[in-house]
Amino acid sequence: MKVEFVSAPQARLVASLVDQDALPSGLEPVLAEAARASRFAGKPGQLFEGFAQRADRLIRIALAGIGEKNSRARPANLEKAGAGLVGKYLTSGETALAIDFTSSGLNAPEVAAVLLGARLRAWRHDAYRTKLSEEQKPSLARIEAVGVPAGTETAWAGEAGLAAGVEFTRELVTEPANIIYPESFVARCQARYAGTGLEVTVLDEAQMRELGMGALLGVSQGSVRAPAILAIRWNGGAAGTKPTAFVGKGVTFDTGGISLKPGAGMEDMKWDMGGAGAVAGAMLALALRGAKANVIGICGLVENMPDGNAQRPGDVVTSMSGQTIEVINTDAEGRLVLCDVLTWVQKVHAPSAIVDLATLTGAMMIALGQEHAGLFANDDKLADGLLAAGLASGDKLWRMPLAPEYDKLIDSPIADIKNVGPRYGGSITAAQFIQRFIDKGIPWAHLDIAGMVWADKPGATWDKGATGYGVRLLDRFVRDTLEG
Length: 484
Ligand code: BES
Ligand code: MN
Ligand code: ZN
What we know:
Layout: E1 2-6, E2 13-19, H1 29-37, E3 47-54, E4 57-67, H2 74-89, E5 96-100, H3 108-122, E6 142-146, H4 152-174, H5 182-193, E7 199-203, H6 205-211, H7 214-220, E8 228-235, E9 244-254, H8 274-288, E10 294-304, E11 316-318, E12 324-326, H9 334-349, E13 353-358, H10 362-368, E14 373-377, H11 380-393, E15 397-399, H12 404-407, E16 417-418, H13 426-435, E17 444-448, E18 454-455, E19 465-466, H14 471-482
Helix pairs in contact: 2-3, 3-4, 4-8, 7-9, 8-14, 9-13, 11-14
Zinc ion (ZN) binds near residues 254 and 333.
């Protein structure tokens, strides 16, 4: 979706934003009456459409409600209005949508929020649909922003970078596992990052073996695909400031391994790399908007498959940290990948704080559904910063507990630790497992995003499918706590 700033619209479709109970005064009486008759009151998410004769042209008029001016949800409501318009007209046959901000009273960041919602809602992945009819294909390709206040283009430049990050994450998450596997994930990132200033380094299997990453390699050994660790560096901050690390679980397909998952719904496990996808997209967003912060993004990339060489339940592996792990269930593989990646990032990059993102447990979806990701943290300040970023960005988080009583549950009779605990509290024992690999004194947060990566129905700014969850959260966290 192209966004243009124009003084006079070319589009035949012209939208205006309407505050609650405040129809535009210049509206043709017949339109105003029609809007009232259909109970359009400018509530958030409400849309109305009509036609009007204006200066010899028949214009398709859309009104989008943005609710109360001083609502706490104002930014979200503005996004929702932009997204709602695009959702309605994406395949309508209209090729351009003008949004007239002239008498909207919105400031530059508010206009940018409308445009962000519009662009995010327009994203689709049609690469493999070769038989779409003309009516099914997106027609809308251009948004004309009319009458915007000073500063809007600058505000939009930042939000456009953010949108590109969200779109990249959705792309990685949507691609099936025969297309995106560890090596192709890396290649897709390298191609997308060209010219952005992001620095990429890759660890291959031989290097991981050299480093003693027995936990990660144990997961990977049943797959013919080689694993990879992708490190993405953004140095936008003061030289010498320690980076903040974002670490993502990138299981490009999770069959469960020898502890094989049931067949029904297993295709969903193509998005078991959603944490790594969020990190890859967030890094792109930070670079494109020129974030003034030092950040390193690490993606731990493996495929979890059952073959003759796959690891077995009961196997004991030695992690890079030196801790030995009894693999009770080969389907609890995410934590085995993360533990070695986390040891590596602490050793090599000495981060000031770590946030990991992972589609780690089905239990997280049982607990929180698809509205909040679970947040586990050893540091209240880090937790509060993330919670606030979640509220501000719409990528919401809910804090979950860590405690020694839970930690005990993953002691192993044969090794230092086992990779699953009892049935109850499965998301918490998973977090406790990861915590055993965090060095003393390092602020760390673990986000279990299993419920957030994929949506079965359209949401405010996404269609069904990949949501891009996490990109806006991490971007907002960087803006508010690192760039402050
Ligand atoms: N990737 C899954 C978790 C998952 C399940 C994410 C469904 C999204 C939707 C993870 O690797 C897994 O299989 N976890 C197991 C852990 C169990 C064996 C302790 C689970 O949640 O069942
Ligand atoms: Mn699994
Ligand atoms: Zn998994």
